[in-house]
Amino acid sequence: MRVYIVIPAHNEAAFIAQTLLSLATQSLLPKKIVVVDDHSTDNTPNIVLEFTKKYSFITLVQTTSSKEHLPGSKVIKAFYTGLETLDDDYDILCKFDADLVFPKNYLNTIAAHFKENSRTGMAGGFCTILNEEKYTIENLTSTDHIRGALKAYRKACFKDIGGLKKSMGWDTADELLAQFHNWGVKTDHSLLVKHLKPTGSTYGQASRYKQGEAFYKLRYGFLITFIASVKLAHLKNDYSLVREYLCLASIKQKKKSSPIWFQQKKAAL
Predict the structure, then answer these.
(1) DSSP labels for the chain?
(2) Residue 14 or residue 197, greater confidence
(3) Which residues on neighbouring strands pair with residue 4, listed in sequence order?
(4) φ and ψ of 100, to 5 deg
């Protein structure tokens, strides 16, 4: 199966060489890897360029969005910048992060899952983080969810769901849409990927409001938003996040229900 990979990257000089080396030495080699350098201020693009000289299937694309490292829309916009440079001749499309180390059999095993079941639309392993000199599974999501860091899509599924949403929460929305279109989501506990930079370690205040915005956009409602906020804060061991997640969701809802907002929207139409 032909595997294409898009890797958005922002200031990943400390990690990206390990990521690319782990992908360039897979038992099933990808046909194409495109790294999208999004406004890096470190040595990220130069490191990637060295890999492009050694591996013909690796290319570098540079784009400029914002300097701030935010989850969600910034990452997906960079992903689409890379996707636009690729042709449509793939079987599996992957969106990977630039701070991961993949086991040698990762792509081969993912391809096997797609071959085994023609209705598997999405597949992935699990991120692990270094904890007391041992890598353990990063406890941020349930065991039937594929992290946005290592998503792999069957082409037909990717087309059916209309691609990825440019908003935080996209890696939940895509699975809901896949299931709506009768595609299965396959997680493999044997595929353990080293996550060199734990999730959220570089996210600031703005990213926390982005999470609240994601809950709003997914139409969770207050009760479910509150439960989801508490759950995520518990997983991150920081209950102060609950208030921040709820804040923007509340602001967004008030704006939508405001007569002024309604009139502005009506005028825009």
Answers:
(1) --EEEEEEESS-TTTHHHHHHHHHT-SS--SEEEEEEES--SSHHHHHHHHHHH-TTEEEEEE---SS--SSHHHHHHHHHHHTTS-S--SEEEEE-SSEE--TTHHHHHHHHHHH-TTEEEEEEEEEEEETTEEEE-TTS-TT---TTEEEEEHHHHHHTTS--SSTTHHHHHHHHHHHTT-EEEEEEEEEEEESS-TTTT--HHHHHHHHHHHHHTT-HHHHHHHHHHHHHHHHT-TTHHHHHHHHHHHHHHHHH-HHHHHHHHHH-
(2) 14
(3) 32, 93
(4) -120, 150
Question: Is the whole-model pTM more than 0.85?
Answer: no
Q: How many Å apart are CA 44 and CA 20, to the nearest integer?
A: 12
Contact residues for 74 (Cβ-Cβ < 8 A; gap 6+): 10, 38, 65, 66, 68
Q: How far apart are CA 106 and CA 145, in angstroms?
A: 17
Asked whether residue 139 carries a pLDDT value surpassing 80, the answer given is: no
Q: Which of 23, 71, 54, 49 is nearest to 197 (CA)?
A: 71
